[in-house]
Amino acid sequence: MSSISPVNADVLKQAQQRIQQDLLTALAAFSIPEPLKAAVHHAVMLGGKRVRPALCYATASLKPNHNFAAVRRAAVAVELIHCYSLAHDDLPCMDNDLLRRGQPTCHVVFGEDTALLAGDILQSMAFEILGSRLFDDQAQGTDAAIVLKQMQILATASSKMVCGQVLDLQAEGKQVDQTELENIHRNKTGALIQAAIMMGAVTVFTGTDPAIPKLRQFGQTIGLAFQVQDDILDITASTETLGKTAGKDEQVQKSTYPALMGLEKAQAYAQNLHDQAFEALAYFGDQAQELTAISHFLLARKS
Amino acid sequence: MSSISPVNADVLKQAQQRIQQDLLTALAAFSIPEPLKAAVHHAVMLGGKRVRPALCYATASLKPNHNFAAVRRAAVAVELIHCYSLAHDDLPCMDNDLLRRGQPTCHVVFGEDTALLAGDILQSMAFEILGSRLFDDQAQGTDAAIVLKQMQILATASSKMVCGQVLDLQAEGKQVDQTELENIHRNKTGALIQAAIMMGAVTVFTGTDPAIPKLRQFGQTIGLAFQVQDDILDITASTETLGKTAGKDEQVQKSTYPALMGLEKAQAYAQNLHDQAFEALAYFGDQAQELTAISHFLLARKS
Question: GO: which molecular function terms (chains A, B) (predicted)?
Fold first, then answer.
């Protein structure tokens, strides 16, 4: 099993600092009335691993001299979609979660109506940012065809994410098999993680570049691996480490990989998925250091 | 005061039939698990005046031989955003409305969780459709620059709509002046109506065409006029005619134009806004028949 080497942690830490700054810049570009502004800020800035934007950056870094502004916009947009989904997920009519990343959730602080609207506007803000000139300080302009591809990827993944939510709700208290569970997670979590990678990919590679299918394969496996690891951590980690209520899956009789195949087999499955992900990256050789480091970090993470 | 002539009603009826068919085609293009599929269908297909898509079509018809597929996608997309906003608006944590267009609202039929998710996916579906090849039967292809403009307009209007909701909630039970009330409505209702027009406009006119500012002016005034008329109807129409609970604004002490300036002055103001809208359309001469007919219909409507 991999461990978090200082190098791997550093790569993610650098990406996190960059995205933190870019998220702040992006939020400041919007004129939003209070208390919605504070709720949006709360939903976006209370931390998190920033895995999706980090993957977007790292994918784009496979090719030097890319349109960095378009990558930064994509990274911000995908994280805003993720944050909207969390704000809505935590609502009383959904998971009714009071704690997220060690902080009170959006609806606890701002009320249900404002938390709902914060999620709603975060989704449209994501598409606004994609189509904007944000970060475009060299006035290099935006290739409309690239933005269009980014939008198609993000919108499709956002729809899939909602479908995954529904499949997940439908499966509660039911016995599902591995195929059904994977279908849930490929939609619910996998689609947006893969989108983060593919938005980076289409920004720097042309449609016919053999890098594209390799990155799609990487995205599919790492997205699923992320969810398997999440399920494992829900059992093995404490609420304190996790920053959200641990053991919640078992409590609501959610189907998880450890419940389905046992903890040890689930851990082996996560490792196996990561191995597949690294195989896809092998195509890029040394260029994929950043993606490799983030993948190692994801497998070894404790929260 | 204008009355609904058969010609005006026919124009809207034709547009409504077209959008109804296009909405069905669009929904059928998505693979969505139940019960979300049924909830999305309920939210979209339970009727409504289809004012926004009708305005989008009519604007594009100002110029013959336009990219009709791109206009149809824009019309569907703007209506899906409108339908998402209604599904979320009706939720218990918002207006808690049980009746919409004479039918039980989405959360009454499908539960709060599914109604929330239906709204969420409708928003991403709107952007998916914009970036798709739907209706593109002549394989004429999509000009990415036009789609990008459509997306920018729709995303910005969607964000403004949410801001308007917040301003509206903040104003409940408070005395607001006309400037504040207009600010609420320009965001809450006006932005999306204007977006419907501008999405049609950018599809058929180049950025430097003098038609663009004229249509922006038309959109601004007709959007506000629509809301003033809505406020008036909330007082003058019955629940039966309206298809939603009448008198609701007064009940929750919402600031409205009749409350602010009295019913008669509000009616005169609506007429005045329409006159301004028609002035903007004068630039297009006979070409603007369809937009004129829809505008007349909106002013004379009883629900």
Answer: metal ion binding; prenyltransferase activity
